[in-house]
Every structure is written in C-alpha cells, then in structure tokens.
C-alpha cells in the first residue's frame, strides 16, 4: 500500500511526464559555456547588497550568510 507521500510523488511524476509530452524536454543549454554577466544596474545593485554579507559554515558543513555587522546566533 502506498503512503500519502508516495502517492503525491507518483502523481507528480505522471504530471511531469504529461508536461514533457506537451512542451518537450527541458532545455538545460550548454553546461560548458561560461556564464554571461550583463554588468547592468540590476547586477551592480545585487553585487553591492551582497557586500554586506559574509558566508559562514557551521560544524555540520552547512553554509549560511550573516550580515557583516551582526554576530550569528549560538548553535544549539
């Protein structure tokens, strides 16, 4: 007997198969081509906002970001 989670996954897989038949396979593009940066106002704004964060890694290897002017919460 299937659990509710298994039923959901089964229905989801059938739905995605139907979408594939209607719309075709997903196009992932050339994975070896370099990322093109536009260097537009949006990208400049994003870069400026990210300068306020620092990436950290906890003892379990999880990555997270904290504002540079804040201290992270103590681990439990």
List the helices and strands and how they pair.
Blueprint: H1 4-23, H2 41-50, E1 53-57, E2 63-67
Antiparallel strand pairs: 1-2
Q: Could you characterize the architecture of this molecule?
A:
The protein has 76 residues and is an alpha+beta fold. The protein has helices at residues 4-23, 41-50, and strands at residues 53-57, 63-67. Helices cover 39% and strands 13% of the residues. A two-stranded antiparallel sheet has the order 1-2. The longest helix is centred in the first third of the chain and has 20 residues, at 4-23. It is flat, with a radius of gyration of 21 Å.
Summarize the structure in short.
With 76 residues, the protein is α+β, with helices and mostly antiparallel strands. The protein is 39% helix and 13% strand.
Rounded to an integer in angstroms, the radius of gyration calculated over CA atoms is 21 Å
Number of helices: 2
What are the low-pLDDT stretches, counting only 5+ consecutive residues below 50?
Answer: none
**Sheet/helix structural class:** alpha+beta
Percentage of residues in strands: 5-15%
Q: Sheet bearing the most strands, described?
A: 2 strands, antiparallel
Q: What is the tally of beta strands?
A: 2
In N-to-C order, the SSE pattern is HHEE
Distance between the termini: 39 Å
Question: What is the typical, i.e. mean, pLDDT?
Answer: 85
């Amino acid at each position: 007997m299937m659990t509710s989670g298994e039923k959901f996954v089964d229905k989801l897989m059938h739905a995605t198969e139907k979408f594939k038949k209607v719309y075709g396979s997903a196009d992932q593009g050339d994975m070896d081509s370099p990322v093109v940066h536009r260097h537009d106002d949006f990208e400049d704004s994003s870069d400026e906002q990210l300068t306020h964060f620092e990436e950290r890694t906890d003892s379990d290897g999880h990555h997270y970001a904290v504002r540079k002017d804040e201290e992270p919460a103590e681990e439990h």
